[in-house]
Structure formats: structure tokens, C-alpha cells
Amino acid sequence: MLITPCLLYQGRGTLDRAYKWSKTHTKETILIKFEPVTFRQWRHDLPAGLVVFLVALPLCLGISLASGAPLFAGILAGVIGGIVVGFLSGSQISVSGPAAGLITIVLGAIQGLGFEGFLAALVLAGVLQLVMGYLKAGVIGYYFPSAVIKGMLAGIGLILILKQFPHAMGYDQDVMGEEAFFQFDGETTFSEIWISLTSFAPGALIIALVSLAILIFWERPAMQRRPISRLIPGALVAVVAGILLNQLFGWVWPVVKLENAHLVQISLFDNSGKMNQLLTWPDFGMLLKGPQVYVSAFTIALVASIETLLSLEAVDKLDPHKRTSSTNQELKAQGIANILSGLVGGLPITSVIVRSSANMQAGSRTRFSAIFHGVLLLLAVLTISSVLNLIPLASLAAILLLIGYKLSSIRKVLAVYKLGWEQFLPFVVTILGILFTDLLRGIGMGLVIAFFFILKGNFHNAYFFRKETRGKGEQIVLELAQEVSFLNKASLQHTLSELPEGSRVVIDCSKTLVMDLDVREIIHDFKETARLKNIDLQIIGQDEQPSWVPAPVH
User: Which of 283, 445, 310, 348 is nearest to 108 (CA)?
Assistant: First the structure.
């Protein structure tokens, strides 16, 4: 088999993954497209990368704080997730970084192993992901039902709205980026909202409303036709307006000015010369001290891989250019990134749906936006952290509120409802599960409901049942499907047991390619049942030759 590399461009300079098979004489040629990072779409990618940077910065810090890790660990994970995964990933709009779904696992690993021991486990987890990529384990990502993926997107949207509402009100006691229903501060998603309504900061509310108005205005068709809207993202305008408005409060209305608790805080990174002192190296000696480091590594690798595959599947559905990402390539990219993150003192990295959604909503076209956001994270925290510390969390909350609305709009919910209950019920259960537990548990609940409908469909679709009139009178025909598994066993057994005595029955297996042993045994046992019930039985296609079992003559 000859493998020929090629480059394939489609549309307005966008890249589209394709595996094209063609036959040349007696050999098969596989055309595999390599996707280098391109700068051709920089007018779209630079503003999108800036928006993702503004969204990712507080999330990186919040996840670090909640995980019990140094603040710089989250920044390192964001930088490596943006730059390294950006270069190696096959996805054009997915963005990687530290994920809220791993907070509990990371916190437990750090408490049990120490931070240096946890880093050793993270390096090992990266190696496991790399091996999974080469073993083509990414194919698992293709088996998540569409209804569950849509439910995940809508659930994340609602989580963003509910979790960012307190920050927009100026109540910033919970961690920015916390997604679970039961929070680390002892509150829940809803109790936090109630407290924020009674303890809000007027300055934060004003800034959030102004920022939200700017974002909505920036997306109006009349504004979108102006060149400035394509060069300067609305999120940047909203953030700058929030900074200026807060400074204005200090001059004319000091009582409502937002102080440090309501602003981005990255005061640790004022001097880039301290970079080496901010890095932490793993303690590989922990690999010899017991099984806990291996359990932690396996858990991190498994959960991070599942979250990445789910996010990747969701991002492909969001992509307006309908490009398909290689799941195996993504696992390799994530594995390399986690190895590097563990070696220098970072947090686990996954593809993150919040940042990826922000990237897509901001108009990203290629992976350059993810890389650019990683570069901005690195440069900003090392050079202009004093400026970043002026950004109100209320402005960033407004950005995430709008993203959440776009992901969970009523129009999208109604579109799934019109598909029927088999799609809508897993969709709703996934949303409710994410709202009242966390991301992975919610997805698990949705999968259970989706698989129930799959089993129900298999129960009824194992065969076609019809009655025909032939020379000797009426006969019953059971035409088996192409694949009949043990899942169809109960349905087939029930139908055969209900066949009336003295009837003429044909079991047609001629189109069946795969038949489970359990099903074969049921058909074999029915031969004896047919004799006892005076049934004329004909079996076609099984064991290559028709099998006749005539009814006994009395």
C-alpha cells in the first residue's frame, strides 16, 4: 500500500481534513493531508485568539486555586495547551488548557502525593495518553450519541450563565471557572445566585451591563459590516470599557469602585527574570514508593482523555466549516502536552469546551488562534500583569454570559425537541445531570438514557415480520436483519413463542452477515418447538443451505 502525502485546501483558504481512497492499477493510494499552521486567516484568528485569552486567563487562575496548586501552574497549562496542542492537534478550533472537570482529582493527588509527586503522575498520565493515541483508542469518541453531545453543549451554556451571574453581580466568593453544582465554598449553584442577589456590588453590576450591551451591539448586522468590527473584537472593547468605567468610579463615585477582590489577580508574575523560580520539577522517586502515583496517573489519563474526546466531538458539531478532527491525533497531542506540563510544573491539560466555544463564537478559522492565545498568556502574565490586574471580573463574566446564551438558546432546545423523544430525553437528562452534578456525571446520565433507546431500537429491529400468501396458503416470514446480536435475543424469543400452532413459518437469514451464538441457539431450539406445535418451519440462509423441518404427519 502506497501512502502519498498531500496538501488540500478548500473554501476561502480554510483547511478541511480528508482521507481520500483511490485505486491505481493493483495498488491502493491513500492521500493523507498534513495540516500546517497557516497565517492566511489572521484577520479572523488574531481577534479570536485575543477573546480566548481574555476568557482563559481568569479560568486558569481559578482552576489552579481550586486545585490547591500554585497559581502559575494553571498559566503554564494554558500556555502549553495553547501552543503545543495548537501545533500538534488536528482540530482547527479546539482550544486546550486546564479543565475544571479535573479539579477534584488533582486536589486529591496533590494532597496524597505532594505537588512534585503529582507532577510525576501527570507525566506518566501523558505517556498513557500518547500510547492510547498510537493504539487508536480515540475511536471511542465516535460512539457518543449526538443527543448527548448537544445536551453537553447546552448544559455548559447554562452552567456558564448560572455560574457567571454572581460574578456579574460582584459577588466573587466562589472560584472563577468552578463548574460543579456543589462548590468548594460550601454553597451550591443556586444558593450562590441567591446570595449574590442580596450582596451584590453596584459597580460590578453596572460594568457587567455595559459590557454586555457592548458585546450585543458589536454583533449587530449593521456593526458587523464595518471594518472595525473585524479588526477589534467586541470582547476587547468590553474589557477596556470595564477598566475605564471602574477608574471613572474612583474619581466620581468612589464608593462603588471595584477593588482587588473583584478584579483579575496575577501579582506573582511581575518579573520575567523569576521564570525559573516559578517552575517546579517532578519527583520521579515517587514512582518507587507505592501504587498511589500509578492510580492517580491512570485516573488523570482516563478522565482527561474522555473530556478531550467529548469536547472534540462537540467542537466538530459547532464548526461552521464542518471539519472533522482526528481523535487519535488529538490524544497524541494531549499526551505530549501533559508530559511537558508535568515536567515544568503545570496542571493536566484537556480540550476545553468553554474556550473552544469562545474561539468559535469569536470567528476563528484555524489553529493559529489557539496558538496565539497561548502566546498572549505567556507574554501578558510576565510583562503586563499590572495592567491585567485592572480587568473587572464582571466584564469577563459578561463575555461568558453571552457565550452561554448562544450555546443554550431556546431555538437549539426546540430543534432537538422536534426530533422526537428518543433524542430529546437524553438531551434533557444530560443538561440536568450537568447542572446538578458535574460535567462527566451529567454526560454519563445522558449516555444511560441514550443507550436505553438504542437497546429498545435493537429490540424491535432485529427482524421484519410479515405474512404472505403462497401456494399452500398463508405463511409467516421472519426476515432477520444484517446483524443480529444478543441484544435482540429477548425480542426474537418472544416472537417465536407467540407463533400459532399449525402455522407455516419461514425464518429468512439470507441477508444476515453477523449472527450471535445466542440467536443461533434460539433458532436451533425452535426447531424442536416447531415439531411439538405442529409448525411447518423453513430456515433459509443459515449454515449456507436451506433447512426444512416439516410438521409431523398425524
Answer: 348
Separation CA 332–CA 357 (nearest Å): 22
Q: What is the mean pLDDT of residues 485-497?
A: 80
Identify the helix (H) or strand (E) that includes residue 50: helix 42-67
Strand order across the 536-540 sheet: 463-470, 473-480, 504-508, 536-540, 547-549
Cβ neighbours of residue 459 under 8 Å, at least 6 residues apart? Answer: 487, 488, 490, 491
Exposed / middle / buried, residue 553 (Cβ in 10 Å: 0-12, 13-18, 19+): exposed
Task: Count CA atoms within 13 Å of residue 265 on its CB side.
Answer: 13
What SS3 class is residue 304?
Answer: helix
Residue pLDDT, tens place only, 133-157:
999 998 888 788 889 999 999 999 9
* Range with top average pLDDT, 229-233, 330-334, 459-463: 330-334
Distance CA 311, CA 291 (A): 30
In 384-499, where does DSSP find H-type helix?
385-388, 393-407, 410-417, 421-436, 439-460, 489-497
Q: How crowded is residue 321: how many other Cβ atoms within 10 Å of its Cβ? A: 13
- Report the C-alpha dihedral over residues 284, 290, 291, 292, rounded to 10 degrees: -70
Q: Which DSSP state fits 469?
A: E
DSSP reduced 3-state for 390: coil
Neighbours of 173 (CB within 10 A): 15
All three cell numbers of 304: 482527561
Gap between the Cα atoms of 483 and 461, Å rounded: 10
| CA–CA gap between residue 285 and residue 535 (Å, rounded) | 73
Q: Cα 131 to the chain's mean position, in Å? A: 21
Q: How far, in Å, are 66, 99, 347 from residue 84 at the CA level?
A: 24, 16, 14
What single letter denotes the amino acid at residue 542? Q
What's the full length of the chain, in residues?
Answer: 554
> Regarding predicted confidence, which is higher, 71 or 436?
436
Identify the bridge partners of residue 464 per DSSP, sorted by sequence position. 479
For the segment 339-363, the average pLDDT, to the nearest whole number, is 93
